[in-house]
Amino acid sequence: MVQKDFLWGGALAAHQFEGGWDAGGKGPSVIDVMTAGEHGVAREITSTIEADKFYPNQVAIDFYHEYKKDIALFAEMGLKCLRTSIAWTRIFPKGDEAKPNEAGLKFYDDVFDELLKNGIEPVITLSHFEMPLHLAREYGGFRNRQVIDFFAKFAKVVFERYQDKVKYWMTFNEINNQMDVNNPIFLWTNSGVLVEEGENAKEVMYQVAHNELVASAKAVMIGKEINPAFQIGCMVSHVPIYPYSCNPADIMAAEEANRQRFFFADVHVRGKYPNYALKEFEREGYNIDIRLEDLAVLKAGTVDYVGFSYYMSTVVKADARNDVDNNIVNGGLANGVENPHIQSTDWGWAIDPEGLRFTLNRLYDRYQLPLFIVENGFGAIDELENGKVHDETRIEYLSKHIEALEKAVDYDGVELLGYTPWGIIDLVSFTTGEMKKRYGMIYVDRDNAGNGTMQRYKKDSFAWYRQVIENNGLK
Ligand code: BG6
Known about the structure:
Layout: E1 7-11, H1 14-17, H2 63-77, E2 81-85, H3 88-91, H4 102-117, E3 121-127, H5 133-139, H6 146-161, E4 168-172, H7 184-191, H8 201-226, E5 231-237, E6 241-243, H9 248-270, H10 275-284, H11 292-300, E7 305-309, E8 314-316, E9 336-337, H12 353-367, E10 371-375, H13 392-410, E11 416-419, E12 442-444, E13 456-458, H14 460-471
Parallel strand pairs: 1-2, 1-11, 2-3, 3-4, 4-5, 5-7, 6-8, 7-10, 10-11
Antiparallel strand pairs: 8-9, 12-13
Helix pairs in contact: 2-4, 6-8, 8-11, 12-13
Protein name: 6-phospho-beta-glucosidase
Keywords: Glycosidase, Hydrolase
InterPro entries: GH, GH_1_N_CS, Glyco_hydro_1, Glyco_hydro_1_AS
């Protein structure tokens, strides 16, 4: 059984559910120029907003205008917290303004007040895949050190404004996605960066990552000064990589591949670069601009907890070779192979609840900090029939993952702050831009092309999760 004040909640991200992309003075973000794709068809990043293209995040599920009704449903479900993000472009529409946009600040005041009134604690990510498009186009995103200061300023403004409403913060969502440089959407959404012809993508990525890690550490320092009671975490995607066999070559291949997963959290938590990364820079001849003053900032701005998403596991085999282009499922691993012991979702994501317990133990042993599962969920096609959605498979997926987390807490002694399943209400998929890849316990009548009434319906998982929260776990 988890502790009494365990944060059972739901997770969302501003750009995937708010809509209102140009309302209240909001500026365009990097996500507002991403078209819809589908499983196996990549989303396109257009240079401007083109009139004949469909950009699903611009309207999303229109929480911007419907937030009171949606929050009432979250309260009915019994959520103790809601993990969401602040759209940087509502606060600084272009990113480099001298003053913030009051209408944007007021919107989040209203949302947080409504949540708190309903007994739901906001858990906030500062940047979830949506830096201002202007910073990406005119400054080169996080390639440019000026963007560190723009981010720090944004962080300061929101920390000051919401210091009495929000306690749990995270800096950058899934900052480690960009380690997969084979798929352009990751560097673009994490950092506002596109790799140019002739550049070494990995070297660019490490430079951008460095600037972003410094920005994150600065934000932690600023936040702690404003309110020492803040709990500020990092947020990484954790996809454990298993060795294919007990062949020592597979074990070592997995060990090396896992470093790519740990790199960002290693710096966030330890406040310094791990030796394996410094050796890689040296070996590959990467010339990364890391200044002395940055090292001091990294050291001073370490995180209080590790937030992470968990959806699946992967496998590597030392002698396997893949076409890694655009392969989200194996995380761009050249030697990734399928796991013959487990099944996958329709989108090819391996379903592995035991892997969650494994991950919790690994992260806790490595960092000795409280953990927070801020995303986990089952993306699937749901059928609405007579106002009902029977999503037993989702219930089964989530039950098994909750069972695994309970075991990690009860049996292994992992310190876990909470669990916020992804997409508590249906929203736009990040990797594909689809609506039909649904995660929610609340169904939203909207399709991939933007048709539908936008009406909300409770799925079977709604009542099931309410019961879980009421019982403080599975009974
Ligand atoms: C995580 C992201 O990668 O996984 C979310 O933080 C995302 O933004 C979620 O939506 C699920 O991915 P997808 O592509 O199925 O929406």
